[in-house]
What we know:
The chain has 596 residues and is mostly beta strands. It has two domains: 2-81, Potassium Channel Kv1.1, Chain A; 93-537 and 555-584, Methylamine Dehydrogenase, Chain H (7 Propeller). 11% of the residues lie in helices and 34% in strands. Its main location: membrane.
Amino acid sequence: LQTLTWVPDSFFSSLLSGRISTLKDETGAIFIDRDPSLFTTILNFLRTKELHPRSINVHMLMHEAEFYGITPLVRKLQLCDELDRSSCGNVLFNGYLPPPVYPAKRRNRHSVAGSQFMAGRVVPVERAPVRRSNTMPPNLGNSGMLGRMGGEERTSAGPSSDPGMVRIICGHHNWIAVAYAQFVVCYRVKESTGWQQVFTSPRLDWMIDRVALNAKVMGGSLGDNDKMVAVASVTEIILWSICPDGNGNEIGVFSLNVPAEALFFVGNQLIATSHTGKVGVWNAVTKHWQNQDVVPISSYDTAGSFLILGCNNGSIYYIDVQKFPLRMKDNDLLVTELYRDPTEDAITALSVYLTPKTSDSGNWIEIAYGTSSGTVRVIVQHPETVGSGPQLFQTFSVHRSPVTKIMLSEKHLISVCADNNHVRTWTVTRFRGMISTQPGSTPLTSFKILSLDDVDGHGGCSAGTEIGPYGERDDQQVFIQRVVPDTDKLYVRLSSNGKRVCEVRSVDGTSITAFMVHECEGSSRIGSRPRRYLFSGHGNGSIQMWDLTTAMEIAGKVDIRALGGPTEEELLELLDQCDLALTRTPDSTPRASTCR
C-alpha cells in the first residue's frame, strides 16, 4: 500500500481510498484495464524512484504515467522526450514574429456588404489542443492580438475560423504578407535590423481567402518605392499601396462578380481568376479594373507579362496583361489560344519554364501540363517552331488520378496527382539552357505526400497550406508536408527522391496553420547570396522562420537518412492527435490554382 500511494492524488491513492470504484475479478483482485508490460516499469519506479529510459518507449510510458497520475514520472519522461527541444529552436530556427496587435475596424469608404459572405460557412467543431511542454514558454497569443480583442470582436469574424490564427503567408523579394481572418500584416527584412512590421490593414467585415503581395514595383505611376498588397474574399478584392513610411492607402475595392480562386501580381497588374471562367485585371498605370470572360479555368501560370491559363476544354490560352484595359482592337484579341491538348482533357496543372534566351515576344518557351485523366505532357516553342506554335515534345501516362500540381525547372519535371499527393519526378537534360533530350521515361522517384485536411475546412485556408513543390529557380525543389491538421510539426522533403531534408517543430508548441517557402535576397555585402526560408504561421498568430538553405547544405554534406515523410511510428503518433472522421484526403477534383 505504501509503495502504490506515496504519490499524492494519483490513480492508486484515489482507488485505494475508495474515491474511485473498483472492479474485481473472480479471485477478488482489483482489475485495471491497462497494459501489464508497461505497468512493470511503473511499479518499479514506485518502488525505487528510478527510471532507465533506454529500455522503455518514452511516448507509450508517458501515456501510462499520465493515466495513473504519477506526476514525478511524467515530469521525468517529459524531460527525456524534449531533451532536444528548446524554445530557442534548433540550428535551423531563424526568427520569431509575435502575434500583431488587432487593428481597428475599416471605415466603409466603399460599400462592401459583409453579411452575404458569411452564408454557407460551417461552424467548426472543437479542436483537440496540441500537447505543450512544461518547459516551453507561455502562449504569447494573449499578449498579442487576442489580448486586445473584446468579446464582440472575437465573434466578428463569423463562426468559420479562429480570428487569431494565421491563414495565409505569401512572400515577394524581402517582404512577406501574413493574412489573418480579417486583416493582413506586411513585414520586411533588412540584415542590420531584422524583420520589421511595416503595414497593418484595417479590420475587414469579411473573411480573407486570398492574399497577394508586390514588393518591387518597376515603374508605373505609383513610384518605384511603393509596394502593394491585396486581399480577396469570395467575389470582393481590396487593394492597398504601402508608402515608404509604412502607412497604407486604400487604392480601391473591386469585384470579380464570381468567387476568386487565385489572386496574384504580374508586374504592376493585379490578377484575379475564377474556375467559372473570369479573369479580373487592375493596371497600376491606368488605375483601371476590368473583368474578362474566358472558358472555365482549371490551372494557371505566368511568364513575363503573360498569363497562361489551362482550361476545362483542353486548351491553353495566354493573355498579355500589359494590354489591359484595351479591348478588341485591330483583331488583336485579349485571350488567345496557344495550344490544344490532343485528347481535349481538362488542363488541371500548368508550369511554364522560361529559357535564358526567352524574349518578351515569348518565342522561347517550354510548358509542362497535367490533365484530368492523369496525363503529363511537355510542349516546347523554340524559334524554329514559331510559325506553327508550341509542339508536343513528350507524353507520360503514369498517373491514374487528375494531376493537381506540376513544375518544370532547369533540372527536373515534377508532377503530383490527387491520389494522396502521389509525386513523380523526372530528370531534364538541357543544352545551352533549352530542353534538348526528352526526360527519361523512368521517373527518378515515386512517393506520396500524405496530408489530411479538415473535412469542413474550418482549420484554415487551403491557399496557406500548399505542399509545393517550392523553389522553381533552384537546383533542387522541396515539398512541405503537414500530415494532420492539428500538428506542430512539418516535414521538408526533396522532390528528386522524397527523402527528408529536415523536420521542423514549433518552438512554442502551437499548431501550424499555414506555411510557405520563400527566397529572400542577399544583402549588398560582397559574397552575400539569397537564402531560402520556410515560414510557418501558427494558431496563436505568430510567425516562425526556418533556414532551408542551411538544411539543404547539411543534408548535402552527410548521407540523407533513408527517412522520407513520417515513418509508420511517426504517422501513428500524429494520427493520435486528430479524429479521422473529421478529415479527408486530398480532393480528386482539379484545383484552380496549382503551380503557384
